[in-house]
Amino acid sequence: MQDWYQLARGKTDHILEAIKEQPFITELMNGTLPSDVFQFYINQDAMYLAEYKKVLATVGVKCEHVDDTQFFLDSATGIINVENALHQIFLKDNQLAHEPSPTCELYTSYLSRIVTNHSLEEALAVVLPCFTIYKEIGDYIQANQTNKDDNTYQSWIDTYGGEAFAASVSQAIAITNTYAANASVDVLQKMEVAFVKASKLEWMFWDSAYNKEAWKI
Ligand SMILES: Cc1ncc(CN)c(N)n1
């Protein structure tokens, strides 16, 4: 029998395929992504992660089992520290923006709303695509690129395609599956909605970076 993650992941096949085809991802893989686009992305991502860190800590506090709490608190500090270090490599101080794009604002606000006002199960489901999609895309790029020795963005690619990230992704999936195993049909339905919506927001985040999305007014 399929576990919750396998079922939810199945509902997002089209989103994963669409992400792989995004110009942001194909150009990142080829090493041809314009540096101003990557700068825009990394800058927005730094603002995203500052909020995501708080969201993960909140999920950790809500967990019933101490090991799960520990995992999310460790993730809030450990993973994010790795990503912040990565940002230091790429982020140019003189090109910093301080206003989140509409999509960055939408994604972080959505995460925060679900984690604060909804069930623990939905909170687990909504934070999961941030782990699983980056893992899948990191693996996908590593498996398909032909320029590992000559890609400006290799350290970014290797962060998400690497073993350390894989271990935390597996743990996040396992914890979510455990809580889903005891959830009602109604809660399972809501978990799926949250997982699919956050997956769409991952697609939108790369799309908004590629187009250097601005506020319309
Ligand atoms: C928007 C976004 N989503 C996910 C990740 C991977 N933690 C990230 N750095 N940025």
UniProtKB/TrEMBL annotation:
UniProt pathway: Cofactor biosynthesis; thiamine diphosphate biosynthesis
InterPro entries: Haem_Oase-like_multi-hlx (IPR016084), Thiaminase-2/PQQC (IPR004305), Thiaminase_II (IPR027574), Thiamine_Salvage_TenA (IPR050967)
Molecular function per GO: thiaminase activity
Gene Ontology biological process terms, A to Z: thiamine biosynthetic process; thiamine diphosphate biosynthetic process
GO cellular component: cytosol
Catalytic activity: 4-amino-5-aminomethyl-2-methylpyrimidine + H2O = 4-amino-5-hydroxymethyl-2-methylpyrimidine + NH4(+); thiamine + H2O = 5-(2-hydroxyethyl)-4-methylthiazole + 4-amino-5-hydroxymethyl-2-methylpyrimidine + H(+)
Boundaries of every Thiaminase-2/PQQC domain copy: 20-211
Keywords: Hydrolase, Thiamine biosynthesis
Sequence similarity: Belongs to the TenA family.
NCBIfam families: salvage_TenA (TIGR04306)
Name used for this protein in its record: Aminopyrimidine aminohydrolase
Biological source species: Maribacter aquivivus
